[in-house]
Amino acid sequence: MFLPRQKDKSVTDKPNYPPIRRFVTGHDANNVAKVIMQGPATNAKYPSAGTVSTMIWSTDRTPADIAVGERVEDLGARIIGTAPPADGSRFAVIDFPPGNEPRMHRTETIDYVIVLEGEIDMDMDDSTVKMKAGDVMVQRGTNHAWANRSDKRARVAFVLIDAVPLGLGHPVTGATSAR
């Protein structure tokens, strides 16, 4: 018998999770390495109740432009979709509340996934992987959905790097969001 998942009454649309402290390094005019940006990452989206997706940084190409200078564009302030820009990358941290609604999707990317806090399940076509804080994954363009089946928030870091298309199914591309 199928029972619908009960929504957690304590989950709000815009939860007050601990901020993500972001430090961006570079070089000054004398080629001295230093922090050029610091503070909380503020480019957050709220794709579903209790879920927070915070953009940390993105790049437009590989190799990335890391020119000397203390005044650089805040590439974490950009509004982009789930996939990175063509030939680029996207670094985000997503907070998943307990009982989130998993959504199956696929991107034409190689993803480096690091579980920072809590537990998260990655559902694929016919299997599930349970990941815990400290676990890492290399996700290579597969169908997947993220499900927090625990009773605590899960915080997961994702680095998505554009990849050669597989030609399978209907991947999430460009400014489109998986949510």
Written account of the structure:
By secondary structure, the protein is an all-beta fold. It has a domain at 42-162: Jelly Rolls (Sandwich), CATH 2.60.120. Helices cover 0% and strands 39% of the residues. The protein has strands at residues 21-27, 33-40, 44-45, 52-59, 89-96, 109-117, 119-123, 128-132, 136-140, 145-147, 154-162. It has a 6-stranded antiparallel β-sheet, with no helix packed on it.
List SSEs in N-to-C order: EEEEEEEEEEE
Supply the helix-strand structural class: mainly beta
DSSP strand content? 35-45%
CATH class of the domain at 42-162: Mainly Beta
CATH fold type of the domain at 42-162:
Jelly Rolls
Distance between the termini: 28 Å
- Model regions low in confidence, pLDDT < 50 over at least 5 residues: 1-10
Task: Furnish the topology, listing elements before pairings.
Elements: E1 21-27, E2 33-40, E3 44-45, E4 52-59, E5 89-96, E6 109-117, E7 119-123, E8 128-132, E9 136-140, E10 145-147, E11 154-162
Antiparallel strand pairs: 1-2, 3-4, 4-5, 5-11, 6-9, 6-11, 7-8, 7-10
Q: What is the compact description of this entry?
A:
The protein has 179 residues and is mainly β. The protein has strands at residues 21-27, 33-40, 44-45, 52-59, 89-96, 109-117, 119-123, 128-132, 136-140, 145-147, 154-162. It is globular.
Provide tags for this entry.
179 residues, mainly beta, Jelly Rolls, 6-stranded antiparallel sheet, 0% helix, disordered N terminus
